[in-house]
Specification:
Number of helices: 0
Distance between the termini: 50 Å
CATH topology: Neuraminidase
Oligomer: single chain
Largest sheet: 5 strands, antiparallel
Radius of gyration: 20 Å
CATH class: Mainly Beta
Strand content: over 45%
CATH architecture: 6 Propeller
Number of domains: 1
Number of strands: 26
């Protein structure tokens, strides 16, 4: 990523609050249905036997999400970022049109969040990337309109952030995703309009990044999703308009990628999210236009996926955040148009009919 050296201080206006009640707004009482409920999986309404490859719905302990909590948050949240400070997990929400930012502590048993800090950043940040170094937890912010980039360190207890570094990259990076190779943490940037791609290594103490590789891929990849398998890290590249998919393996030291598999999946998928449930890696996909969701298991060596189940959820879900607390795996789902937010707990598939 081309940089223009602009190492100036970040000015952030913060409004500190005490520990707030669970949720950001009172439940509406008329909120839209959660993404998955018990009634969705009954035999009379069950579309789950349809998968992208025609495989039957697993009923052998395959994880399936069951909603355990629901609330209505502020509509229009553009970024939801989960991170840890020490051993506590938090969720940051940011609204690019207003600059409003909230950090909430993730509550046990999947019961939403409790706010610990509210603040006001500048408007227009299009990516908020949390990452951890030996010196703490950091947030990298990027504005694709003008190339502004900044790094903050998250304060103890999640109570706001401290500016560390600011610079300017080129504008137009549409996909920015962190990944690790070995013990090194990297950042992949991609411009969907022309295929420009770069890999940077995070510098110590939150002081920006250093470019280690640049190239040009085909334009038009709408999703880039890294995941790890053993000592290897892979990248799913997906094209929404054609369904074309390629799996690359990241090379050592962040020196680019090597293609290992390609195929065609359904068009129009709006979310491709690698998740870990227990000790197993899965791929959760969602297509907003049809409200279709599916869970696949990654094949060894980056060789695509094996379908496990497909379900009909409701439309409008814009963000999904997987997390683990006390050994239990959850999925937070958010609807940008209405603010409806749910938390689902992953339960074994064979328990669905008994709930």
């Amino acid at each position: 990523m081309t940089r223009l050296a602009m190492f100036t201080a970040v000015v952030t206006t913060v409004i500190s609050t005490g520990g707030a009640a669970t949720g950001r707004a009172a439940p509406s009482g008329s909120a839209a249905p959660p993404p998955v409920s018990v009634s969705d999986v009954g035999p009379a309404t069950d579309p789950l036997t349809r998968t992208r490859a025609g495989a039957p719905l697993a009923d052998d302990g395959t994880p399936f999400p069951r909603t355990v909590w629901q609330d209505t948050w502020r509509p229009g949240i553009s970024a939801l970022s989960r991170f840890q400070v020490d051993t506590t997990s938090y969720l940051l929400t940011y609204q690019t049109t207003t600059g409003a930012v909230v950090i909430g502590r993730l509550n046990g048993l999947g019961q939403g969040t409790s706010n610990v800090w509210r603040g006001l950043w500048s408007r227009g940040w299009t990516s908020v990337i949390p990452y951890r170094l030996d010196t703490g937890t950091y947030l990298l912010r990027y504005n694709k309109s003008d190339g502004s980039v900044a790094t903050d360190r998250v304060n103890s207890g999640g109570r706001g952030t401290t500016p560390i570094w600011r610079s300017r990259w080129t504008a137009g990076w549409t996909r920015i995703v962190p990944f690790s190779v070995g013990n090194e943490l990297y950042l992949l940037g991609y411009k969907e309009n022309d295929g420009t791609v770069a890999i940077d290594r995070f510098n110590a103490d939150g002081l920006g990044t250093t470019t280690v590789w640049t190239s040009r891929w085909d334009a038009g990849w709408s999703a880039l999703s890294p995941y790890r398998e053993g000592s290897n890290t892979y990248l799913i590249k997906y094209r929404q308009n054609s369904g074309a998919v390629i799996v690359d393996r990241f090379n050592a030291s962040g020196a680019g990628t090597t293609p290992v598999w390609n195929g065609t999946w359904p068009t129009g998928m709006t979310t491709l999210l690698p998740i870990v449930v227990g000790s197993t890696q899965y791929l959760l996909s969602y297509r907003n236009a049809t409200a279709g969701a599916a869970l696949d298991k990654f094949n060894a060596g980056g060789q695509g996926v094996t379908p496990l189940w497909a379900a009909r959820w409701s439309q409008g879900w814009s963000a999904f955040v997987p997390y683990r607390l006390a050994g239990v795996d959850y999925l937070l789902s958010y609807r940008v148009a209405t603010g409806v937010t749910t938390v689902s707990q992953f339960v074994p598939g064979h328990l669905r009919q008994r709930m």
